[in-house]
Amino acid sequence: MSEQTPGTQEREVDVVVIGGGSTGENVADRAHRGGLGEVVVVEDELVGGECSYWACMPSKALLRPTAALAAARRVPGAAAAATGEVDVQAVLERRTSFTSDWDDSSQVEWVEGAGLELLRGRARLDGERRVVVTGADGGTTALVARQAVVVAVGSTPKAPPVDGLDGVRYWTSREATSSRSVPPRLLVLGAGVVGSELATAYRRLGSDVTLVAGSAVLSAFEPRAGELVADALREEGVEVVTGPRASSVERDGDEGEVRLTLDDGRVLVGDELLVATGRGPQTGDLGLETVGLEPGQALDIDAAGQVRGVDGRWLYAAGDVTGLAPLTHMGKYAARAVGDVVAARARGEADGEPAPWSKHATTALHRAVTQVVFTDPEVASVGLTAQQARDAGLDVRVVELDIAVAGSSLQADGYTGWACMVVDESRSVVVGVTFVGQDVAELCQSAAVVVAGEVPLDRLWHAVPPYPTISEVWLRLLEAYGL
User: Which end of the chain, N or C, is more open, meaning fewer C-beta atoms within 10 Å of its C-beta?
Assistant: First the structure.
């Protein structure tokens, strides 16, 4: 049923993109570059989205200064100059500079400069090809898409079933990355990427941090990666609690101390509680029921990014909202694919199938996902873990070793690192790689080329790593494999 009310403006446009984060921006840009003139981006918060203001950029800005200081302290000659304490206020100010103090003017300028239209407001689907946008003043605009509607609304934090949690004030990643001060005591519930990174950041900025990790730190990664990060956190002074689960929470008023009770009876006390127990697709109030889909669920897409279960080949999705590879860079990749497909279909190309190049999107989004965890040590991973490869029925051989090459010894005294290569023996190709260690983030792209490109191991041997760099670990992995 239409949501149109008296005073609603109705317009027909080529493409409506719901969500003005990095994924939505890239969908819109590619569709417009592909020849579609009227592309409207709808956003009800800050243009640029979660990554720009509350996730990737501010969190890494909080982490980088103390990581640089720690790295200097590991190198004799530089260590003597790195004896002072971190300037917390300067760190917070630099973080704020990366968010433009939560002002999206520059992002709006980019959208308009790219030839796109920005419409501020809350968007909901209202039947086939129709999107109703409600502005801050209560006015509504109905957009009807000639070619496509693309959903790129991202994800939202999920709260665990802990008694009392819904009645207390707590931090999500948004509050943690935008805080103007450092709490004396911080409780972190959840030790995935967000929990581990922010536990690292706030401990180094001066908080007494307790990390309630559940089963393990970074449990979605290779077990050894999580163990090394947990060891490093403990060495930093973080109390890492594994095993017991949170059972209840209470707080003295809005600003009083937080008491988190575990199921073993232990009570943890802090000044702030960060809940970092995962995220889910932000589809609860999107109007999915008007097109026959269930609200609150991830949008199931095909290789072209088209949403399954909706007739007419007009509804697409990209990024976190699909539940696939919920990472900024992967969302932007998927966005480019979707934008190109929408434009190609509008031109009458690729009528029955996705655009020819997009056949590789399945590999990128399912089997060659890249990710870096900016703890210290860093964790860089591409593709499948050993267990995931076994679960997929692959004939798996795992090669793992400590990173101990000339490049790592030059990088830091006492360098601690680990590498793991997962090989599909039936095809003699690498299907997963994990690196753990200082500065291994820059090894991620080489691993991505190896995994996504399905480079045969005998060919990989001839990709000679430069000396002396940490990338020499590739040579050690191949030698350990037996090449």
Answer: N
Q: What are phi and psi of 79, to 5 degrees?
A: -60, -35
Is 320 part of any known ligand binding site? yes
**Domain boundaries, given as residue ranges, for the chain:** 9-48+104-156+281-364, 165-277, 377-481
CB contact set of 466 (below 8 Å; sequence gap of 6+)? none
Is 302 flagged in the annotation as binding? no
**Residue 414 annotated as binding?**
no
pLDDT tens digit string along 355-391? 555 566 777 888 999 999 999 999 999 999 999 999 9
Rounded Cα distance, 87 and 93, in Å: 10
Instruction: Check whether 263 is labelled as a binding-site residue.
Output: no
Side by side, the strands of the sheet bearing 370-373 are 370-373, 378-383, 429-437, 418-424, 396-402
Q: Where are the beta strands (DSSP E) in 198-278?
A: 208-214, 239-242, 246-251, 258-262, 267-270, 272-275
Quote the DSSP letter at residue 301: B
| Alpha-carbon distance values, 140 to 5, 16, 123, 132, 186 (Å) | 8, 15, 10, 7, 43
Q: Name the band, by pLDDT with cuts 50, 70 and 90, for residue 85.
A: confident
What is the pTM (predicted TM-score) of this model? 0.94
246 assigned to a ligand binding site = no
Q: Are 302 and 287 in contact (CB under 8 A)?
A: no
Whether 455 has a binding-site annotation, put simply, is: no
pLDDT tens, position by position, 260-290: 999 999 999 999 999 999 999 999 999 999 9
pLDDT at 352: 47
165-277 maps to which CATH number? 3.50.50.60
Q: Is 253 annotated as a binding residue?
A: no
Q: Domain spanning 9-48+104-156+281-364 has what CATH number?
A: 3.50.50.60
Is the per-residue pLDDT at 1 higher than 60?
Answer: no
Under CATH, which number does the domain 377-481 receive? 3.30.390.30
* 60 annotated to a ligand binding site: yes
Kindly state the average pLDDT of the residues 436-452: 97
193 labeled part of a ligand binding site: yes
pLDDT tens, residue by residue, 131-145: 999 999 999 999 999
Q: What pLDDT does residue 363 have?
A: 78
